[in-house]
Write a structure and sequence with these properties.
single chain; alpha/beta; 39% helix; 12 strands; globular
């Protein structure tokens, strides 16, 4: 049997460091770029940035360097950001985010999705009607409406988390009849695809040629979960709690749905528990996030995973709940 490999990466802001470190171990283990192993990559928000970089052939070490050294350029901790939030509804510049994504992608910043040498799936949500947009390469089995869109624009739209960034508009001229205009978009994690593995599997197995669940190894990489939030005591606390739940709570539900829908697939969910709540924009905690990533990576047996073996993190019907397969770290 010829195996194919699908990789999905969660949302999580600066916690994209965690999957980046996991992929560094993969590349050090195999001597190959992640793109040369996984022929389908999916991501939402920070996961979209990592997925786009993988498709562009950026080594995981450079992806990690981007997070460690450039995120402070995105998340300016000027106290006036809260005034900006009240007046305009967002704190950080989406244009600056786009420019840094383009820099990270290098020559691939000029690509459309169709230029990607591997299949790619990036999710975003349209503001006007809440419609989810799944950005993929065009092929004979799908609608053929997103492949001509720019890789950088699609990635930026997926990463535009509400209240953190201004929504991102993809110009109507980027689409073509009979496809409808894309419009103004925000983070695809909002509500459902904070963990995009289920939607990615649907796209791969139902709408992408040459993918079959019985011949696919799927790896879903998380960005760390904090499970001990305090009860909010004022309106600001409740709004923060609601946004965090909208962006992150579907994560393990998507793992469960994926396994139930495709039990014949070889499936691994790799994530870890955070001992403290690390906001998606708190670059001052980067060193701590790196610690989480390194400790998690030390527990991953990539050779066993690529072989489809029974190994830690494999979902097989007896360990699909978070408490049963998490890896507690110090």
């Amino acid at each position: 049997m010829t195996r194919r490999y699908l990789l999905s990466i969660d949302s999580g802001g600066i916690r994209g460091i965690i999957p980046a470190i996991a992929l560094m171990k993969l590349e050090n283990t195999t001597g190959k770029l992640t793109r040369d192993i996984f022929s389908f990559v999916a991501g939402t928000s920070t996961g979209a940035i990592v997925a786009a970089a993988i498709a562009a052939g950026v080594p995981a070490s450079r992806i990690l360097d981007f997070y460690v050294n450039r995120t402070r350029d995105i998340f300016n901790q000027n106290p006036f950001r809260f005034v900006k939030l009240i007046l305009f509804g967002y704190m950080y510049s989406t244009k600056q985010l786009r420019d840094l994504i383009a820099e990270a992608l290098g020559p691939a910043q000029a690509w459309t999705l169709n230029d990607s040498p591997i299949d790619i799936f990036l999710s975003a949500k349209r503001i006007s009607d809440g419609m989810p947009w799944y950005f993929v390469r065009d092929n004979p089995r799908n609608a053929g409406c997103t492949g001509r869109l720019g890789l950088v624009d699609c990635t930026t739209a997926s990463a535009a988390a509400p209240t953190f960034f201004q929504p991102w508009r993809i110009a109507e001229s980027s689409t073509h009849p009979p496809c409808e205009p894309v419009g103004t978009l925000v983070d695809g994690a909002l509500g459902v695809t904070g963990n995009p593995v289920y939607q990615a599997c649907i796209e791969a197995f139902e709408y992408t040629p040459d993918f079959n669940p019985t011949e696919t190894v799927t790896v879903s990489l998380g960005t760390g979960k904090f499970k001990n939030r305090k009860e909010p005591t004022w309106i600001g606390g409740w709004l923060e709690w609601i946004l965090a739940e909208l962006l992150e709570s579907p994560g393990e539900q998507q793992t469960e749905l994926t396994w139930r829908h495709y039990p014949e697939m070889t499936f691994y969910r790799i994530d870890t528990e955070l001992k403290e709540d690390i906001s998606i924009d708190d670059f001052r905690r980067i060193e701590r996030v790196v610690e989480y990533g390194e400790q998690l990576a030390a527990t991953i047996d990539w050779e066993a995973i690529l072989a489809g073996a029974k190994a830690p993190f494999r979902i097989d019907g007896t360990n699909t709940l978070w408490e049963q397969y998490k890896v507690p770290l110090s």
